[in-house]
């Protein structure tokens, strides 16, 4: 009998405040959709970092005959074979170095032509203008500064370059977008909480006669508050369900059917990451409105 009464009160409350309930569902859906998307974007950035950082190298460029005026290291002209052999031997002795690969000027020119193709820029460079280099693969790419400090001032070394610098701006952009999404999500979450509290207030005010009768017959505070809390929880759960639909739809339509075909060099996150986020979205959608309603009712339904 008690359960039937609570369910009937929930139905009455949802019908009386249909417009505000719909607003709560939409705001919760948008805020939790952004929340889930932010979590997935964070995983995507981590996946991309692991993929690209594993492929980039540290490049040690040697002086050639055209670099005599580029710096003190190249004042004596092109790097000698002895200088190259000494540097390679030291690199092979370092525990953090995984492999060392030599690239000649001709190989560098070939890669340059592959990159720029038949563009006008390609004809401005000749093989003798491109430096020889060692492509150093590190076991831990974050240890780049160890290589730079050890070899950047060595005679015959023009420059020590970390290829991570070429991809770091992309990761900074993605992190910035993630922070922006979190800020919008926080704003939407505040709006959703305000709507939930206001909906509970209106619902409690419209049913003040029923709650007054329940007080007189000795009903407990929890029993009086239960229909209002469940109303908020149901609205939040519906919003969370719509958020899950948005997340799954975004993964299927935006990522799988568009971005994955347009940008094939990126290893996008899989459905396992999405499946890990959805239960969290549903849990927050259920608990957040229920707790907001509980604390709001402590003031408006005192027994």
UniProtKB/TrEMBL annotation:
<keyword id="KW-0131">Cell cycle</keyword>
<feature type="transmembrane region" description="Helical">
    <location>
        <begin position="179"/>
        <end position="200"/>
    </location>
</feature>
<protein>
    <recommendedName>
        <fullName>Cell division protein FtsX</fullName>
    </recommendedName>
</protein>
<keyword id="KW-0132">Cell division</keyword>
<comment type="function">
    <text>Part of the ABC transporter FtsEX involved in cellular division.</text>
</comment>
<keyword id="KW-0472">Membrane</keyword>
<dbReference type="GO" id="GO:0051301">
    <property type="term" value="P:cell division"/>
</dbReference>
<dbReference type="Pfam" id="PF02687">
    <property type="entry name" value="FtsX"/>
</dbReference>
<feature type="transmembrane region" description="Helical">
    <location>
        <begin position="21"/>
        <end position="41"/>
    </location>
</feature>
<comment type="similarity">
    <text>Belongs to the ABC-4 integral membrane protein family. FtsX subfamily.</text>
</comment>
<dbReference type="InterPro" id="IPR040690">
    <property type="entry name" value="FtsX_ECD"/>
</dbReference>
<feature type="domain" description="ABC3 transporter permease C-terminal">
    <location>
        <begin position="183"/>
        <end position="299"/>
    </location>
</feature>
<keyword id="KW-1003">Cell membrane</keyword>
<dbReference type="InterPro" id="IPR047929">
    <property type="entry name" value="FtsX_actino"/>
</dbReference>
<dbReference type="InterPro" id="IPR003838">
    <property type="entry name" value="ABC3_permease_C"/>
</dbReference>
<dbReference type="InterPro" id="IPR004513">
    <property type="entry name" value="FtsX"/>
</dbReference>
<feature type="transmembrane region" description="Helical">
    <location>
        <begin position="221"/>
        <end position="254"/>
    </location>
</feature>
<dbReference type="Pfam" id="PF18075">
    <property type="entry name" value="FtsX_ECD"/>
</dbReference>
<feature type="transmembrane region" description="Helical">
    <location>
        <begin position="274"/>
        <end position="297"/>
    </location>
</feature>
<keyword id="KW-1133">Transmembrane helix</keyword>
<feature type="domain" description="FtsX extracellular">
    <location>
        <begin position="56"/>
        <end position="160"/>
    </location>
</feature>
<comment type="subunit">
    <text>Forms a membrane-associated complex with FtsE.</text>
</comment>
<keyword id="KW-0812">Transmembrane</keyword>
């Amino acid at each position: 009998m008690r359960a039937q009464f609570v369910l009937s009160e929930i139905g009455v409350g949802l019908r009386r405040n249909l417009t505000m309930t719909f607003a709560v569902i939409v705001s919760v859906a948008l805020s939790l959709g952004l929340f889930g998307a932010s979590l997935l974007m964070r995983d995507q950035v981590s996946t991309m970092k692991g993929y690209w950082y594993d492929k980039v190298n540290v490049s040690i460029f040697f002086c050639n005959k055209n670099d005599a005026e580029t710096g003190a290291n190249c004042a004596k002209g092109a790097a000698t074979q002895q200088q190259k052999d000494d540097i390679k031997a030291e690199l092979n002795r370092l525990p953090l170095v995984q492999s060392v690969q030599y690239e000649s000027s001709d190989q560098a020119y070939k890669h340059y032509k592959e990159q720029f193709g038949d563009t006008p820029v390609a004809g401005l460079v000749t093989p003798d203008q491109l430096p020889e280099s060692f492509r150093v693969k590190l076991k831990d790419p974050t240890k780049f500064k160890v290589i730079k400090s050890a070899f950047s001032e060595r005679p015959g070394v023009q420059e020590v370059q970390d290829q991570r610098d070429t991809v770091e701006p992309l990761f900074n952009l993605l992190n910035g977008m993630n922070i922006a999404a979190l800020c919008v999500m926080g704003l939407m979450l505040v709006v959703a909480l305000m709507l939930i509290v206001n909906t509970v207030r209106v619902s409690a005010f419209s049913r003040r006669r029923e709650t007054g009768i329940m007080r007189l017959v000795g009903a407990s505070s929890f029993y009086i508050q239960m229909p209002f809390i469940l109303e908020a929880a149901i609205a939040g759960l519906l919003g969370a369900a719509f958020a899950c639909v948005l997340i799954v739809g975004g993964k299927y339509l935006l990522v799988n059917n568009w971005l994955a075909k347009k940008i094939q060099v990126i290893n996008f996150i899989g459905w396992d990451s999405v499946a890990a986020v959805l239960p969290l979205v549903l849990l927050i959608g259920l608990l957040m409105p229920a707790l907001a309603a509980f604390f709001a009712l402590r003031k408006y339904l005192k027994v």
